[in-house]
Write a structure and sequence with these properties.
The structure holds two protein chains of two kinds.
Chain A: H1 4-9, H2 21-32, E1 38-43, H3 49-61, E2 66-67, H4 74-78, E3 79-81, H5 83-87, E4 93-95, H6 97-100, E5 105-108, H7 116-128, E6 130-135, E7 138-143, E8 147-152, H8 161-166, E9 169-173, H9 179-200, H10 206-228, H11 236-248, H12 255-270, H13 278-289, H14 306-317
Chain B: H1 9-19, E1 25-29, H2 33-51, E2 54-59, H3 65-69, H4 93-97, E3 99-105, H5 113-122, E4 127-132, E5 135-140, E6 143-149, H6 159-162, E7 167-170, H7 179-195, H8 202-213, H9 220-227, H10 237-254, H11 261-271, H12 276-279, E8 314-318, E9 321-324, E10 376-381, H13 390-399, H14 401-408, E11 422-426, E12 433-439, H15 448-461, E13 465-471
Classes of the chains: A alpha/beta, B alpha/beta.
Amino acid sequence: MENTNDLLRSILPYTYIVGQEKLKLALELAYIAPRIGGVLISGQRGTAKSTTVRAFASMMYNALPVTIPINATEDRVVGGWQINKLMQGKAEKQPGLLEDANGRLLYIDEVNLLDDHIVNIILDVTSTGKLVIQREGRNEQLDVQTTLVGTMNPEEGGLRPQLLDRFGLMAGIEAETSRERRRAIMDTVLRFDRAVQLEKQGITDDFLKAGREATKQLKTEIEQARLYFKDVELTADVADACVMLAEGFQVEGHRSDYLLALASCAYAVRYGKLKTKIEHLRAVAELVLRHRQPDAIQQNSAPWSEEQEQRVAELLEHV
Amino acid sequence: MFEFKTEDPFITSLACAALNPALRSILVFDAPYPVLQDIAEILAQMLKAATGQQVEQGNIAIEQDDDVWGSLPLPDSEEHSAAVKQIFKLFSRERNADKMQVLTIADLARLSLAMARTCTMLIGADIAYLERNGEHDQWQLQQCWLASCSRKEIGAISPHLLDRFAVRLSWQPIAKYTRQRKIDNLRTFIHDQFTRSTQLPIELLQRITDAAQRQADFPAVAFSRVMDYIPIESYYPRRELTLARFAQALARLNGDPQVTSEHVDEAAAILGLVKIENLEEDKQPSIEPAPKPMPVEQELPVQPTSLTQPAQAVQQESSDTLMAKTQEAFTPDPLTVPKLTTNPYPEDEAPIEREASSLKVPHPRFSTARSDRGPIFGVEQADTLQDLAIVSTLQTAIMFQEVRKLEQEKKHTLLIEKSDLHRYRRGFISERMLLLLLDYTCLQSCNWQEALLPYLQEAYADRASITIVKVGAADASYQPAL
């Protein structure tokens, strides 16, 4: 395998991602509170979805995310045997990507293009936390806790409701259209192009040095937040509001109440607070409720607009 | 050897693509395959000049994932079963380790599903991931993609896939040339088959090598100019970045230390982009019919039959007209003048002619028993012997042979178990047909389209084929357009 450091050098430092605050927030919250279970990122082409996920993984884990490409075969996802050894008559196990992703971030680019058969396996593991391998003579059960992150372009179709619900949070991404942001994106990308070229010649320029330094600091902040997450108090008014929001959006089941509470706590500690407030809940409502609205199942894009924002505001007014 | 003119916009475009890895995905509209091959050869030389690496060329005409990424390994021989036979892979870390690839797609609209999905994964990506058949690898990609497709068929291609192609160029249309011109072109083409050379001049290659060592700053004024070309209603970040990168590559190619507004304008002209302020007045079909004959002082565009004569003076006479010079003396037919401002993103306006979710592996839609017809796009595990994929089944069985032989003490028998069985995965074929008999003698006064709608909807849901038989009286004036 290619040197990890070489591959990481081709990743834009996370702190240089321009805009896309919701996406970044979702990734950070899922890291701080792994029980959130995963993040679905849906958005139009070229909006730095994959770039942001890789940048985040390289910042937090100093490694690329464990990635399931859309053409992965079952043996690589679930686990199988080392084929070369097998042909010599020696049966040596080869862990699959789900096992590799234990305690890490499991990334599926173009998750809506993944084979249904593979999707079913991943669903099963993320929902139960158990990887059951019963194939090719293997019969094992392993505990696997992973943060599933999927990116998709809704132009190419949506996800089944069962899979949608497995993602704790969903960030809907749109292109940054203000001239200032567009300029900043171009500036960042061109400077990074140049920096990568120089890096290949053994020169690390100031742009990269500054980005990597800022990334280290941010990593420390997020790790601290994760450390203190268990100490965050979910206040009674926020707990009530979580239930009220879920009811107001006619969401089925209790998963959304729980996730609203978890995400509020993670948000609070991300910004240095150990007690949740209604404003914390308001900040995470879209991420939790967006894909759980009854209409979202019928539509690929799970829209969230002023109308939904207004509804959140109205529901929270009564708390 | 012919003479290249380095100021030719097409050649310049290729040089820019060679200079920036993010520009190394090129879609050339309406380029015939021989031209595409020439372009690939030229790109290969340019890439070698820009990167100093060896460049390998390949064509993409692959139907299944296993042909792209390699299938299960086979033992090299019976005596040395431990040695694994090397399986062909179009993409692998070893292939990218010390050389680049120029990969050519003759017709993007006819790309197989497996390859279309692969292209979506790889084009424009920094890192390739291989997780198939026991193999686990990741590596940095070093590829340049070159594809062609007919502008008319753009609606058949996934916009998600099209978006991966950063640079869009147009080959000049030949349909409107005079018969004499076509004959001349054919002669030249045939002659070129024996004499042509796509060897680029050393000065041009040196220019690219020098440019690769240089950088060009991008000041705020140039950013503003880039944004002047991308209307917000068709704003996709990759398009804006392509224009910026292209302008920067032009500056590097010219040896300029800084990108200027002129570089941006030149890049936009080559790519076929129009300033937003000019867009309204320029909103015309991309190739506008010109019923009037060419004025005497204007000269015929030359259609190069291959890139061995691309520089028959493709010159920019004005901001929106691509003209070429020739000394021919015959009277031209009315012809189409290809505009330099031809929309590089025709998918924004083209009617949709593809399946919804066209990059997804289709669900089986067989109404009766599982069909063993339809195009093969892969294999899957099977529990019956129907439509068995014999090679995959044997490969899986071979993988376990040594272990099974040890267990069962059978030395000379190939042991195949049920778990080895694989069958083909097949794309959809129509199992039903909607036969429409339209008598246009009596259609004029009825709302026949609405009456047909439920049948059409059912046909669509079943992906039925449709056959239309039109009948009517000889003097019937109304003929429905279908």
